[in-house]
Design brief:
This protein is mainly beta. It has one domain: Rieske Iron-sulfur Protein (3-layer Sandwich). The chain is built from two helices and nine strands. It has helices at residues 103-108, 120-125, and strands at 4-9, 17-21, 29-33, 39-43, 57-59, 62-64, 71-73, 92-95, 98-102. The strands form three sheets. The chain has a three-stranded antiparallel β-sheet with strand order 1-9-8. It has a three-stranded antiparallel β-sheet with strand order 2-3-4, with no helix packed on it. A hairpin with a 2-residue loop joins strand 8 and strand 9 (98-102). The chain starts with a strand and ends with a helix.
Length: 126
């Protein structure tokens, strides 16, 4: 049985928008609020080049990555064909206007994924 952690109110997530939730370790989790107030949780990293999905455009049950317009399914975290790849999903529930995430997943899922480097720092690292 999951140990649920309250992370925000449903109204803290814009309709057809997103909100980032920081974690003690690892990249943030992006919460998405779709039609009918359905809430989805994905690692805030596109499987293509690591773009911040929380800054993408939400439509239906998908989000368009702001970097290269890849379409990612909110329910499964997978890119729509012909693109390939998936980003990790997190269990989420909404109860009495409060959004909850599985505490064990927050503490352990996708901790090794890194944010992409860009700009002059990326060239210095290569």
């Amino acid at each position: 049985m999951p140990d649920w952690k309250a992370v925000c109110a449903l109204t803290d997530i814009p309709a057809l928008g997103a909100r980032r939730i920081a974690r003690a370790q690892g990249l943030p989790v992006a919460l998405f609020r779709g039609h009918g107030d359905r809430v989805f949780a994905l690692l805030d990293r596109c499987p293509h080049r690591g773009g911040p999905l929380s800054q993408g455009i939400v439509f239906g049950e998908r989000v368009a990555c702001p970097l290269h317009n890849w379409t990612i399914g909110l329910a499964d975290g997978c890119a729509q064909a012909p693109d390939e790849g998936c980003t990790p999903t997190f269990a989420v529930r909404v109860e009495a206007g409060q959004v909850w995430l599985d505490a064990a997943e927050l503490a352990s899922l996708a901790l090794t994924q890194e944010a992409p480097l860009s700009g002059p720092c990326a060239r210095a690292q290569a």
